[in-house]
Amino acid sequence: MLIRAGYEIGFMAFAQTPMVASLILRPERVNDLRSTHLVLNDRGVVGTDYCDTYGNICTRMTLPTGLTRLSCDFVMECDGRPDRQPDNAPIQAVEELPDDILMYLVGSRYCDTDLLSSTAWSLFGHIPADSRRVNAIVDFVHQHLTYGYQYARATRTAAEAFRERVGVCRDFAHLAIALCRCMNIPARYCSGYLGDIGVPPMDSPMDFHAWFEAYLGGEWYSFDARHRVPRIGRIEMAYGRDAADCALTTTFGTVQLASFKVHTDEVSEIDVPVHSPLKLVA
């Protein structure tokens, strides 16, 4: 299966403004590319890439005064199967976890585990200590929160989402991650593309998506409290403890979002030549 994805995002800067963008694919997905993958802009801005603490590829640039549009358009291959399921994989004892996994057990900026621990154990403590406990958390969050763009708030934490019972995909992910960590299940935040492939199209504009992964039986598995069911065609851009580590863009000055378009669609080899550069939206 081939998926064509990308974006065009416009930023209005009122002075020269440094920016860090996390808009490049995770290194693990590079071998799946079937076209070029370039982050372009219409102002001739030169960017430099670096690898952050979590293995994400980030781009540093300085936006000039005025409107700058970033764009990307690429094709990659997907196996066409829904998210891999853990089949009752066990929750590992904390003392057996690898050192680099431990940071995904503790609270973070948006996953305030200290406020949710007693709630988590009262809700899920009776469920077997394996992937069934994670699925129970996913089911709970899916039912507990009402989704809607009108509920978006950049400062909402997991505990606030639990109390307010509303949110967008990042809030679903944060609450599920926090509840997992409360139960000593390592969980990390994921951002990337997820198109309406194999499911009825959503009645809303295409956007980037947030979900989470849980570490079970020595492996990471994808879970999605917003959609609840396994999905086809996830394209990962960033991993981290929460959205603070995976922000699409971080600006160090006053910048307004002027435009925002994302596309993620299944295509055939006839539609887009494999191994051929794509014409980007200008």
What would you note in describing this structure?
This protein is α+β, with helices and mostly antiparallel strands and 282 residues long. It has two domains: 2-79 and 247-267, Immunoglobulin-like (Sandwich), CATH 2.60.40; 94-232, C8orf32 fold, CATH 3.10.620. Helices cover 15% and strands 31% of the residues. The protein contains four helices and 14 strands. Strands 3-6-1-14 form a four-stranded antiparallel sheet, with no helix packed on it. A hairpin with a 2-residue loop joins strand 10 (209-216) and strand 11. Helix 2 crosses helix 4 (169-182) and helix 3 (158-164) packs across helix 4 (169-182). The longest helix has 14 residues, at 131-144. The chain starts with a strand and ends in a 15-residue tail after the last strand. The model is unreliable at 273-282 (pLDDT under 50). This is Transglutaminase family protein. InterPro entries: Papain-like_cys_pep_sf, Transglutaminase-like. Pfam families: Transglut_core (PF01841). Residues 161-227 form the Transglutaminase-like domain.
